[in-house]
């Protein structure tokens, strides 16, 4: 679910400085969850879903909350994804007392945990029903005077919100595809089952209770989003003091794995990615909720294709679990594609050069006929500082049985409406069969080639 922050190119206004100060002042307030069982770190299963018609999540264009930190030249777009494979994950949680089960799409590209709540006439009610706050004894509205509401940006008292400090804090997110979600902010008890079979209870978790929804398309199970971004409102930040640190890791199983096999997510202590084969790179600071990394170039076979010929400019890529494909700027993509086609012809003369079929895909896609995944050429991403991460064919290609095509898993950002010549998206498919750890205390992300079917990391 792609979005970008480009703070370093903009002059800070007083409003921006105010929001940054609120992030610092109110962090201890919002990290107020209690783990009753006091396990420290824990792991949870992730349910794989089939985004046949993927939800059109994108960076909100409505400048309320921390998203106002985005500059006017920040790239924004709604991404269309590969049509027929499992590219998303749901996390099952329970909210309220008594507990009510909800299924939320995990998203490293956003911060807020929100779910549909009654009454909501425009929300699509799933087969699991809808959470009713009135039936929960632990539900508490968040007032406008609360620090969490100030971080959300509602302290400006515009649009009729928060004219009285005692009013209930509201959120409103409008997306570029005209989708919007609006509702109230609350604190609630959240319970989840770990992979060890033990339940973890988290008190006073900040959630968004959606009362109006328009435009989004969901699966029959999805009931909202659990934001795993780096912001102080995120689930990761809220539980950090009680889970053993502001860190988490996940291990997504391959796309064609048995549907009954789940992926895995690990929080806090025990989620560290260590051992032989680990490749680490710094997370860029001052990028809001986004997990941004710097890339020097891409290696095709034995040939390195630099992002910038002088080496003075790095490609900034957002690690995004909600966007299956990987996107790079048009000029860079053209050079990568040219080298790929050149190398591909030399390693396998039985296959024709990669083709672009405008009737099936736009010009940003490189595809071959058939659904056999090529073993060559090898593709790797070179991070700033020389670290190189190698991909397998399953991670870099998208087979499509309906079209009898296998497509290269990278496309250009321009074809998707993304502006900017030094931004990209590190998509979900190349994250599969890697244990990927985000350590926000150390500001680093680590990748370890892993069989996610048998070993998803964590303490369980």
From TrEMBL:
Similarity comment: family membership: Belongs to the peptidase A1 family.
GO cellular component: extracellular region
Statement: the UniProt record of this protein carries the keyword Lyase: no
Keywords of this entry: Aspartyl protease, Glycoprotein, Hydrolase, Membrane, Protease, Transmembrane, Transmembrane helix
Region (Disordered): 57-76
GO molecular function: aspartic-type endopeptidase activity
GO BP annotation list: proteolysis
Enzyme Commission identifier(s): 3.4.23.12
Tagged with keyword Transmembrane helix: yes
One Pfam assignment: TAXi_C
Protein name per Swiss-Prot or TrEMBL: Putative nepenthesin
Basic residues composition-biased segments: 58-67
PANTHER family the record matches: ASPARTYL PROTEASE FAMILY PROTEIN, PUTATIVE-RELATED, OS07G0603500 PROTEIN-RELATED
PROSITE patterns: PEPTIDASE_A1
Transmembrane segments: 12-29
Major enzyme class: hydrolase
InterPro entries, sorted: Pepsin-like_plant, PEPTIDASE_A1, Peptidase_aspartic_dom_sf, Plant_Aspart_Prot_A1, TAXi_C, TAXi_N
Organism: Rosa chinensis (China rose)
UniProt xrefs under Gene3D superfamilies: Acid Proteases
Domain Peptidase A1: 89-448
């Amino acid at each position: 679910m792609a979005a970008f922050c480009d703070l370093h190119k903009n002059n800070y206004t007083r409003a921006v400085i105010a929001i940054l100060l609120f992030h610092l002042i109110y962090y201890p307030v919002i990290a107020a969850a209690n783990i009753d069982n006091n396990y420290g770190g824990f792991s949870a299963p992730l349910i794989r879903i089939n985004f046949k018609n993927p939800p059109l999540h994108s960076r909100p264009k409505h400048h309320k909350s921390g998203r106002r930190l985005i500059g006017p030249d920040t790239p924004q777009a709604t991404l269309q994804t590969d049509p027929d494979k499992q590219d998303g994950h749901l996390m099952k949680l329970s909210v309220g007392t008594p507990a009510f089960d909800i299924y939320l799409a995990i998203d490293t590209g956003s911060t807020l945990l929100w779910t549909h709540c009654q009454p909501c006439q425009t929300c699509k009610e799933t087969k699991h029903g809808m959470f009713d706050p009135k039936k929960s004894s632990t539900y508490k509205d968040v007032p406008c005077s609360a620090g969490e509401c100030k971080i959300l940006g509602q302290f400006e008292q515009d649009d009729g919100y928060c004219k009285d400090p005692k009013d209930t804090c509201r959120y409103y997110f409008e997306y570029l595809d005209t989708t919007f979600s609006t509702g109230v902010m609350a604190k609630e008890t959240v319970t989840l089952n770990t992979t060890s079979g033990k339940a973890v209870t988290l008190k006073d978790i900040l959630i968004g209770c959606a009362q109006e929804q328009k435009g989004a398309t969901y699966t029959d199970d999805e009931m909202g989003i659990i934001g795993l971004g780096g912001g102080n409102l995120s689930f990761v930040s809220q539980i950090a003091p009680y889970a053993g640190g502001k860190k988490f890791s996940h291990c997504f199983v391959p796309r064609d794995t048995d549907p009954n096999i789940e992926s895995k997510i690990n929080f806090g202590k025990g989620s560290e990615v260590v051992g032989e084969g680990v490749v680490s790179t710094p997370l860029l600071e001052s990028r809001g909720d986004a997990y941004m990394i710097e890339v020097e170039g891409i290696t095709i076979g034995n040939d390195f294709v630099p992002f910038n010929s002088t080496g003075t400019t790095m490609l900034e890529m957002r690690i995004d679990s909600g966007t299956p494909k990987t996107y790079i700027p048009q000029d860079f993509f053209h050079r990568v594609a040219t080298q790929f086609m050149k190398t591909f012809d030399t390693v396998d003369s039985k296959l024709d050069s990669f083709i672009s079929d405008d009737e099936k895909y736009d010009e940003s896609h490189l595809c071959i006929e058939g659904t056999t995944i090529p073993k060559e050429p090898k593709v790797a991403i070179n991070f700033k500082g020389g670290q190189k991460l190698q991909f397998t064919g399953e991670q870099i290609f998208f087979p499509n049985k309906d079209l009898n095509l296998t497509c290269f898993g990278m496309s250009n950002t321009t074809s998707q409406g993304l502006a900017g010549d030094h931004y990209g998206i590190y998509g979900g498919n190349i994250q599969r069969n890697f244990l990927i750890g985000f350590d926000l205390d150390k500001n680093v992300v680590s990748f370890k080639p892993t069989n996610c079917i048998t070993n998803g990391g964590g303490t369980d």
